[in-house]
Amino acid sequence: MLDSKIPEGPLKEKWTKHKSKIKLVNPANKRKYHVIVVGTGLAGASAAASLSELGYNVHVFCIQDSPRRAHSIAAQGGINAAKNYPNDGDSIYRLFYDTVKGGDFRSREANVYRLAEVSNCIIDQCVAQGVPFAREYSGYLDNRSFGGAQVSRTFYARGQTGQQLLLGAYSALMKEVGKGAIKLYPRTEMLDLVIADGVARGIITRNLVTGKVERFAADAVVLATGGYGNVFYLSTNAKACNVTASWRAHKKGALFANPCYTQIHPTCIPVHGDYQSKLTLMSESLRNDGRVWVPKKKGDTRQASQIPEDERDYYLERKYPSFGNLVPRDLASRNAKLVCDEGKGVGATGQAVYLDFADAIKRLGADKLKERYENLFEMYERISGVSAYKEPMMIYPAVHYTMGGLWVDYNLMSNLPGLFVIGEANFSDHGANRLGASALMQGLADGYFVLPYTIGDYLAGVKSGQTKTDLPEFAEAEKQVKEKTDRLLSIKGKKTVDEFHRELGKLVWDKCGMARNDAGLKEALKRIPEIRDEFWKNVNVPGSGTDLNQSLERAGRVADFLEFSETLVRDALHRRESCGGHFREEFQTPEGEALRDDNNFCYVGAWQFQGVGNEPTLHKEALNFEEVHLAQRNYK
Amino acid sequence: MCNLNQYFNSSIGKKQIVATTGLLLILFVVGHLAGNLIIYLGPEAFNNYAKKLAGLRPGLYFVEVGLALVFLTHILVTALLIIQNIKARPVGYRVYGDSGERSFATRLMPYTGTFLLIFIIWHLFDFTFIDKHGSRSMLMGHSYGLFGVVYNSFVDPIHSLLYILAMCCLGFHLGHGIESFAQTFGCTNLTSTPLIKRISYYSALIITVAYSSIPVYVFFSYPILK
Amino acid sequence: MPHDPLPNLIIMTKTITLTLKVWRQKSKSEKGKFEVYKADNIDTDMSFLEMLDVVNEKLTKEGKEPIAFDHDCREGICGACGAVVNGQPHGPLDATTLCQLHMRNFKTGQTLVIEPWRAKGFPIVRDLVVDRSSFDRIMAAGGFVSVKTGSAPEANSIAVAKKNAELAMDAAQCIGCGACVAACPNASAMLFVGAKVSQLSLLPQGKIESKERVLKMVKKMDEEGFGNCSNEYECEAACPKSISVTNIARMNKEFRQAEVDS
């Protein structure tokens, strides 16, 4: 059993008490402590800026050319907070409850409560940074509603909330870089974690422009490297999103928790060709005003406008009258799959459903809709060539977010002392399913308001300046990184990196996507090692390792996906229940809803690496629900 | 202005110096035009104006030196900016298709500017640094002073055409210049920009037409006077 | 229950054939040149970057090195991608990044000249990849509000006029791609800097240090070797987020006021 180090006391007081008891580092000594932050998304940038403001000596790494490009930037809809500005009955408790329920009771209560508690500070912080949130004519902040909640608690900046929040965090980061307090390493990829005496001591990186492999040592390492959605090849993640940093930390001993909890976003633009490189998400906020439907008749090829009202099936409104189109993401996605499987899907592939704005335009006028979703409608038209003001959008679910990640305790520290994991890279707050507008909240909560406290507690207990890179562990890790690079370059096979990635992605999507079953998962477990073996024999990575080589970068990441995917599938196979983003066909209610097994699976499944291809060891962290009554989710 | 050096060294500072000197030059151009238009009141009035202006010396020298300084500043600072701009793109594009946002006047700025410089030098030798009662002032056997000089010059169609061409250059230069002044000093915003563009366009047009009307008037009135 | 494989697509699609003239340069110090490639059977539903992917797959299979280009989100928001296509940054479509430009905007038989951003402030890293860290340095010089984590007041304690909030948001949409610099005849970065200066000075939270900010950011911008603004507005036309040049005007005003008052 894993110790989550949840503080004692009533839920509502845990964080406050914990903060007041936490050990502190003397301000004069903080500069002596070196902290490495890998990744500059919401979590990484906010953590780096906050740690630097506290006085720590911070080194920041990102693979993009600028920290501002991290994929948090693509989040559209908004960020939740329990401000209760609309006076509609919201509270910290309600946000906490909605998040636990939305996560299908597979998250850690104490973490979620803390998340809801600090959510309000995030809004304050971002406003002070100059984030231009939407406002009402009064000049005060505007809110909108979002899936999985019956209150309006989502703050937004048009359809670019992620961008604005990230630019806020980035500006805070650059403020510290400008002062010389943070050393920034862009276009630098972390390729290994260095562990000495069981403690995280530093990282090995590759400069993506010069190919130089370098060692960096620190008193603590913070991973903020995002999720692993690109294991499916086609996802809404940016092309560079990868599991490499997390996976290599896992191979050094960090536990990987709940990898099978992957979120499929219900409103994405459908796949249109096999050259397709990524899928584009349309913000879930569209479901506020759009109505989801398919024709009642199977194989109906008429145009949407030709189908009369009584021949349309508004299936979400029909099945879930009280939440309607605003049911949580997993339900919205799975229902889209169900109707398409029944042959009612629309579009050229039959793998799409309509999201119709005609009623909203009638009710609110096209201008109001334009004000709310202008950039989303433009984006849709640019990609599909169709105007959603005139015809309904076509949407289909796509992989979007991964709730699983490296296991962390209440202090966001992994099982390896000195290794902290924040944001999407950890597993902690969303359980089996994340609610809309909660990813931004978690990333910033971790970075601004949790890690700066908890990392101090750890650092206060260790001697500062443990930053020697001449330890044998560094030499060994560096050697391995170089060998791996050389090996990838030397194969010179016949298939490209992307071909392998596509093959893996299709397999994982087919067998471990929106719906999973025992046979399919077992088949995937058989196929993945075969693809992996072929990869190491037949991949073609052109160019050299001493300059900018994008094929080589991708090859390294795909190699890790080929190992990681096996753990993902194993986790899905072992979890013989359905919950949130993990839907096992064998375990469903007669109405086709996810059927949890709280007696046997009310735990966090954290895997320990035992070598490539070997079955990892499962460690469990029991989930105790003291505040929330375990119940089957009901959005009817 | 506390830190003049920093201001001058900055790109925006330099631009604002060019804009300010440009505005002063526009004021001069308007004043000059007002004087020129006196020609329509007849030779006497025009020559009286010239005489009165000459009578302002030596005070006028100060104004002239000031004007020359403004003019030189306008040119030299622009030259500095152009050099910086060339340096800012050491390797050019193989294909550089602009998007159509740059107006014709904008694109012509360096050329209209250079042409105006040449014109002004010629213009000074043509009308300013000459004997105003010499051979070029003679009309029908009498000296008509500066009026005569102007008249004799514009009777020559090539001379007039060159002059009108220069005025067109001036028009284009101002067409961008006035609007550019507003932008460089931050007087533009989403609502005022179209208005400023119109003001810029029409003032440039009026100045060009008004200046150009003089040679045209002279040319067509020539047979009558003769 | 049936599985849900990626649909096997049998869609009638339109394809085109293009000739690409692409700038190839191995590194910052080496000389570059144009190379010609044929792009056959390009589906018009592809994005421009997917077209480059297809060309790169072919080059890789032929044992050649693929064309390096920056890209990440492929949904027009990260600002990583960008190249000059036939003289136009991000290609011919208005308000569209290269990743969102679809091949239906081109005709079969067309020749596309594809070049990197060219500016002293953006040295070439490789092929179409340029180093835009100058933008980061400009941001580090002053593109922020100096508020520390934790010291912010309650968010609704300061009202912001909706009009100003909207104008700030208009400016804040900048994705830092550098197309403004690429399009400017003078390789000026005024639109990028003007947008950030505007955004923060329009909001009461950023107004307090606006003078210091504009001076520092402009100074850094000049040091980085960008050209001067000559009010040609090519930047606005090229900007994939249609950021207005009135933000430059606002910065000019801020700058003058800051200099006069300092």
Notes on the structure:
The complex is a heterotrimer of chains A (636), B (226) and C (262). Chain A has 636 residues and is of the alpha+beta class. Chain A is built from 17 helices and 22 strands. In chain A, the strands form 6 sheets. Chain A has a 5-stranded parallel sheet. In chain A, strands 12-16-15-13-14 form a 5-stranded antiparallel sheet. The model of chain A has no long low-confidence stretch (mean pLDDT 95). Chain B has a single domain, classed as Fumarate reductase/succinate dehydrogenase, transmembrane subunit (3 helical TM bundles of succinate and fumarate reductases). Chain B is built from 8 helices and 2 strands. Chain B has a two-stranded antiparallel ribbon with strand order 1-2. The radius of gyration of chain B is 20 Å and the shape is globular. Chain C is an alpha+beta fold and 262 residues long. Chain C folds into 2 domains: 112 residues, Beta-grasp domain (Ubiquitin-like (UB roll)); 127 residues, Fumarate Reductase Iron-sulfur Protein, Chain B, domain 2 (Orthogonal Bundle), CATH 1.10.1060. A 5-stranded mixed sheet of chain C has the order 2-1-5-3-4. A two-stranded antiparallel sheet of chain C has the order 6-7. Chain C is elongated. The relative contact order of chain C is 0.13. Chains in contact: A-C, B-C. At the A-C interface, α3, α5, α6, α9 and α11 of A face α1, α2 and α3 of C.
Which band does the percent of strand residues of chain C land in? Answer: 5-15%
Major sheet size, sense and barrel closure of chain C: 5 strands, mixed
The CATH topology of chain B is 3 helical TM bundles of succinate and fumarate reductases
Alpha-carbon distance between the two ends of chain B? 58 Å
Radius of gyration of chain C: 21 Å
Report the portion of residues of chain B in β strands: under 5%
> What's the CATH architecture name of the largest domain in chain C?
Orthogonal Bundle
Overall structural class of chain B, as computed from helix and strand content, comes to mainly alpha
Number of strands of chain C: 7
Q: How many individual domains of chain C?
A: 2
Proportion of residues in helical segments of chain C? 25-40%
Give the spatial strand order of the biggest sheet of chain C.
Answer: 2-1-5-3-4
Question: What is the overall shape of chain B?
Answer: globular
Element-by-element helix/strand order of chain C:
EEHEEEEEHHHHHHHH
